[in-house]
Amino acid sequence: xxxxxxxxxxxxxxxxxxxxxxxxxxxxxxxxxxxxxxxxxxxxxxxxxxxxxxxxxxxxxxxxxxxxxxxxxxxxxxxxxxxxxxxxxxxxxxxxxxxxxxxxxxxxxxxxxxxxxxxxxxxxxxxxxxxxxxxxxxxxxxxxxxxxxxxxxxxxxxxxxxxxxxxxxxxxxxxxxxxxxxxxxxxxxxxxxxxxxxxxxxxxxxxxxxxxxxxxxxxxxxxxxxxxxxxxxxxxxxxxxxxxxxxxxxxxxxxxxxxxxxxxxxxxxxxxxxxxxxxxxxxxxxxxxxxxxxxxxxxxxxxxxxxxxxxxxxxxxxxxxxxxxxxxxxxxxxxxxxxxxxxxxxxxxxxxxxxxxxxxxxxxxxxxxxxxxxxxxxxxxxxxxxxxxxxxxxxxxxxxxxxxxxxxxxxxxxxxxxxxxxxxxxxxxxxxxxxxxxxxxxxxxxxxxxxxxxxxxxxxxxxxxxxxxxxxxxxxxxxxxxxxxxxxxxxxxxxxxxxxxxxxxxxxxxxxxxxxxxxxxxxxxxxxxxxxxxxxxxxxxxxxxxxxxxxxxxxxxxxxxxxxxxxxxxxxxxxxxxxxxxxxxxxxxxxxxxxxxxxxxxxxxxxxxxxxxxxxxxxxxxxxxxxxxxxxxxxxxxxxxxxxxxxxxxxxxxxxxxxxxxxxxxxxxxxxxxxxxxxxxxxxxxxxxxxxxxxxxxxxxxxxxxxxxxxxx
Length: 713
Fold this sequence. Notes:
There is one protein chain. By secondary structure, the protein is of the alpha/beta class. The protein has a domain at 615-708. The chain is 59% helix and 6% strand. The strands form two sheets. A seven-stranded mixed beta sheet has the order 3-2-1-4-8-6-9, sandwiched between helices. The chain is globular, with a radius of gyration of 28 Å.
C-alpha cells in the first residue's frame, strides 16, 4: 500500500518533474552520444577483420565497457557544472529555512552494530560522537545503542566493560545502551531488525553507523532537521570521507576519494534527486517507514544466490522508494567519516562479500513495483563487478585473435571502412579509440583538480598546488597498477559465486602490521603473477606488436606481489605523509571529532592498565573470577526458568569441564554459551572462589593468585 502524504510539499521547484526529466535527459544524451561514437569507431575498425564471430564479441564487450566509462564520466562532468556559480539549487539542503535552528528535533537513536571489532577503536569513535553532540546543546534528543553480534567470548566481555566505563565517564546512564544478541541471524540487517522490533517505536529516526564511523554532532543535528523538514524523505545518506589512513594503499584511496568525491557526489545528486541510494551506514532513516516497508525478502534457492540478502542497503532503499518515500544524497555535507581497509588484500576481501551481495540483486531487477531508478541502482551494482569479468574476457579474446593473425598470416581485408574514407588508417583509428578511452578515464581527475583550483584557497587545504599535482600524477600510476589486480580479483569472485561458492561473515581487519607480510602477498597474488608472465611471453613470441598496448595491464599483474606488500606498510605511508603527499584537509586541519578520536586512541595505547586485557581468555576469565566484572556481565543476562533437565545437565557438564581443565578445554561457542547463561555465570563465580584449589585447573589457581596478590603502589 503506497503512502498518502498529508503534508504539502515544502519546495515544489526542488521536486519539479520537468527539472528532473531535463537533468536525466542530459545524462542519457551524454552517455548515448559518447558511447555511440566509440562503438561506431570500434565496429568500423573491426569490419574488415577475419574471424567474424570473435569480432562481434569484442565489439559487444567494448560497447558495454565504453558505455560504463561514459556513464562514470558523465557524473564528473555534470557534477562539475552543478558546482559552478552558486552551486546546485536542487539539493535537499535548500528545504531548510534561513535559520535552521528554528526546525525542532525529534527522538533519534544512534545505532552502532559491531561484530568482533577492536573494542578500543569502537568506543573511542562513539565517545567522539557523543562529545560532539554534547557540544551542540541538543544531546537530550539522542540515545546511543551498541548492538553486538560478536562471537568471541573475550570480545563480549570487553565490550560490556567498555560500555560501563564509557557510560560512567560521560555520565550517560540512561542514554547509552548495550545489547548482545543471543542468535546472530541475518548478519547486520538482522541486528538492526532486532533493535527495531524491541525499541524502534520509541524513536522517529535512527542514524546507522558502522564500527569505524565517526560523525560530528552538527552533522547529525542537521540530518534530523532535514528529515523533520521533509516528511517525504525516508532516508538521507551522507557521503562519508575516508580518514585515519596509515598505509600507502589507504592513503592513496583516502586522497583520491577526498579530491575526486565532491564532483562525483554533485553529479549523482544532479540526476538522482530524491531517488538516491543507501550505502549501509552514516545515514539517517525514518524508523516507521523502515519498519513498515523495508523488510527484506527471502530470495529463492540457497546461497550464494538465494537465501538471505547479503547486500541489504540497495534493496532497502529500493523498498522505501517503492512505498513512495524519497532517498536523498547530501553532497557537500561535512562531518561524516569512515576508515578504509589498510591493504589491497583486505580491500579485496571486503569486495568479495559485496560482490556476492550485489550478484544476488539479479533476482530483484524485475521485482514488482520497484521504481526504474532503483532497478538502475541494482543493475549498476551488479555491473560494478561483472564488468571486470567482461574486461578480462575481451582482453583474452583480443590476445587470441592477434596470436591467430600471427600464426595464420591473416590480415584485415583491404576494403576501407568509413574511417578509411576520412583518411584514417587502422592504426590511427585504434589510436583515436585509445585516446578517447583515456579521456573518459582521466576526465574526472582533471575536472576535480580544476574544481579545486577554482575554489578560494582550495589547493592550500591539500598542501598546495604542487602537492596536489604530484599526488594526482602518482595516484594515476597507482590506479593503473591497481586496476588489473582488481579486474582479476573481481572476475574470480564473479565466477566463484556463479559456481556456488559463498562467503562467510568475517571481521574486517582494520589494524596495520609493521612488518612486510610477503607470505600473504605471495599466496594471494601468485596466480596473478604467473598469469602475467605467461601472457607476456605469449605476446612476445607471437604478437609483439600488441605488447605496448597491453603493457599497463601486464605491469599490474607482474608487480602485484611487491605492490600489495609494500603499499600495505605503515612506514611507507608515513614517509609519503612526511613528504606532504596524499594529504587531505582532514589531516592538515582535523576537525574536533577526529582530534578527540586520535587523542583517545593514543591515550589507550599508552595505558598500562590495558595490558591486563592482552591474551586469549583473559576477559572471559575476569567475567568468572572478578566480582565486579562478573556482576557487570551477570546483570545483562536474563534468568531462564523451566529449562529442560537435559539442557541443565549439559551446562553442568561444561561448567565442570571448564573448572577442572581451564578455558582451553572448551571451544569458543561453548564458552559463549556459558557466558549467555545466567545460572552458569553465577555458579562458576561461586565455585572458583569456594572450591578447594586442588579441584581447580592450574589456570584458575593462577588467576586467583594474580587477583589476590597485593598491587604495587
